[in-house]
Amino acid sequence: MSDPKPFDVLRPVRICRITFSRQPLILAPMEDVTDPPFRLLCRELGADWVYTEFISADGLIRDADKSLQKLDIYPAERPVSIQIFGAHIDAMVEAAKVAAASNPDFVDINFGCPVRKVASKGAGSGIMNDVPKMVEMTRRIVQAIDLPVTVKTRLGYDQKTKYIVDIAERLQDCGIAALAIHGRTRCQMYSGQADWSLIGEVKNNPRMHIPIIGNGDITSPELALKALNDFGVDGIMVGRASIGNPWIFKQISQYLDSGIISPAPDMRERIEMCRRHIEMSVKWKGERVALFEMRRHYSHYFKGIVNFMPFRMRLVTAASLEALYAVLDEIAITDFTTIQPPPPEADSAS
């Protein structure tokens, strides 16, 4: 039997009151990346569902300006999840209430962030060392708000504690609406290769009836299709591969619907998207902050362009919006194939 065509594996997916015509493509939550401008760009280019940056529960209940700003939602980006993280159950319950008051489509609990400053305090994936607390926190949040609650987590804390099949059942019993699983442990951080086999075990567990979303190493339309074919997940979450590349959602969507992979964006499209991202960021957070926070995106928007490094340095050091646009204008008229690469550094041992 021949392999199924991409559109042969598609099926509607319903999560509470929202029905997707096929398994949704989801923008993963990423700190300092998935702000409202970037989420909106990804929605316009084919993402079916987006997540906010993760938001500190302590910051929300203290009314910290940075945390409260992350609650902002553009109407055009829905459906959207507000994701919260924290180590203390009471604080997380109160934060969930604050998040729910902003009227997102879902409130998501972050049990997946692996970075030391979060996990070492027992938040994010650090809570996977205390599964009873993880379950109790989830149960209390589900009971505290009227909106659907979802969870994003990992396979386990380390290689010896990959208990995600059991954890998934227990979280489902708490009443969550969907579960997203990153195919790595906390100790792996983002290294190695994501293990989708355990995600598949959760999805194919006969006890599970909520949608299961797979996350980890989805960097191309072909890999998205493989995840749907091999593991039967109810949604595909894309994280780092979308940074500076919101087109990935358009490429995956077109491939799933037609079997055709659209070409990579040309230089004109890259410049126009980068400029629009900058404009939206300046409007949302002001010129000074926007210029600083956009720096992480430039190398991604122009990834793969040979001899681009001198322009990247000028982009990240531009001190004004006018100077930044001047660099983009110069990039637009530059023939990068004619730029001579810098000479190799002298061998220090010679």
Biggest β-sheet, characterized? 8 strands, parallel, barrel
Indicate how many domains the architecture comprises.
Answer: 2
Task: Indicate the percent of residues in helices.
Answer: 40-55%
Number of helices, where a helix is a run of at least 4 consecutive DSSP H or I residues: 15
How are the strands of the biggest sheet laid out side by side? Answer: 3-4-5-6-7-8-9-10
Query: What structural category characterises the helix and strand content?
Result: alpha/beta
Strand coverage percent:
5-15%
Beginning-to-end CA distance, first to last residue: 61 Å
Fourth-level CATH superfamily of the largest domain: Aldolase class I
Low-confidence stretches: 345-350
Computed CA radius of gyration, to the nearest angstrom: 21 Å
Question: What is the succession of H and E elements?
Answer: EEEHEHHEHEHHEHEHEHEHHHHHH
Q: Briefly, what CATH class of the largest domain?
A: Alpha Beta
Classify the fold: give the CATH topology of the largest domain.
TIM Barrel
Number of strands: 10
Mean pLDDT across residues: 93
Shape: globular
User: What's the CATH architecture name of the largest domain?
Assistant: Alpha-Beta Barrel
- Assembly classification: single chain
